[in-house]
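Quick one: structure for this chain?
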Amino acid sequence: MKKLMICIALCVVAMLAVVGCGQTESGSQADSGSAAKESVDLDSLKTLGDAFAIEAEENQSGFTDKVYVYAFTVDGTNYRVIADIPKGVKTDADKLDDGKEDFEEKSKELFGPLEISKRENLSEMTPTQEELDKYVGKTGQELLDEGWVFSAYLDDEKAFYMDYDWYECKITFDKEIKYDQDNFDGEKEIKDLKVKTIEYIGMGDPTRIEE
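Got it. Here's what it folds into:
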């Protein structure tokens, strides 16, 4: 899926210093399950501009040929809105230069008027530990086949970080691997290993969606 990241989360975890592959953020347990509080009236957001105007603790955005996705956090609660992109707007979007200082401003001007077609409180969709435990005993290949995406590996923790839909989990497997930073293929390493433990970490890449 073709995608261009526009706004990067305001807080970036220092894990990148020790990971084998890039990871964006660790998130917070404050957004878990029923504890999620409704700080934003999603129904009141009619356009992307309405969402852009909200003072968020962090945000991520991106677009494909068809949709624009904007995810943001307010009072520890994660939200996501999606808007369809008309052909004319997509043509103009392809002309944006992310190397220029006014890139974010121009992007918001272009996409702001688009009507939101989907609104989600992601924190209300946070999986419970019981739901995650169903993966214990499954192989890494089974996770990959179900749509999990390798994000990072922390050798000091002997743990893999993987994304599913919008969220990220920390996973340990039944066997330790021999870590080679210069020649590391996370997906290849986990294929035959079985999940030992799995826990929810927070938002991974909420702009990655199925169209």
